[in-house]
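Batch manifest, entry 17 of 40.
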Amino acid sequence: MTATLLGTAGAVSNRFSASTQLVTFLLGAEEYAFPVSRVREIIRPCPTTAIPHSPPHVKGLVNLRNLVVPVIDLRIRLGFEETPVTHRSRIVVIQLDDRTLGAIVDSVTGVVRFSEEEVQPLPVTEETEVDYVRGIVEKDDAFLILLEVERLFGVSESADRG
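Output type: C-alpha cells
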C-alpha cells in the first residue's frame, strides 16, 4: 500500500488561515478541497470490513498501521450517486481532534495555496444545506469548493455505539 504523508495533525486550528494550503480532489467533474493541516495521508483504496447497520456512506473499517479507521464514501455523504472505485480513487485520511477517518474520493488532484481574500461565500438557497462548505475559490475558469472537515464529519456523523 503506497501512502503520501501530507501533514501532521497536532494542535491544529480548525479554521482556514490567511494563506491556506489545500489538498484538492475530484468527485465527478467537481473539484473540492480539505485543509492540508487536517490530512494525515492519502492511500490507495483497500478492502474494508463492513459495519452492520451503518449508514450507506459508511463503507467499513480499515487497519492503517494498527489504527482502526472508519471509511466514508464522500460521494454518498454529499448526496451524489455512488460509483465504483477505480485505479484513480484514493482514501484521504483525515485527522480530527480525537478521531481519524478515511474519505473515498474519485482522485486527488494536488495541493494548492489560496489566501483568505480569494475565498468567496457560497451562494445558496433556503433548500440547500451546505453548512459544511467554507466557501468557493475561482480556479481555471471553474470553482474549487472548500469543505469544513469538522462540520462535514462532525459529531452527528458518529455511529451510535450504545
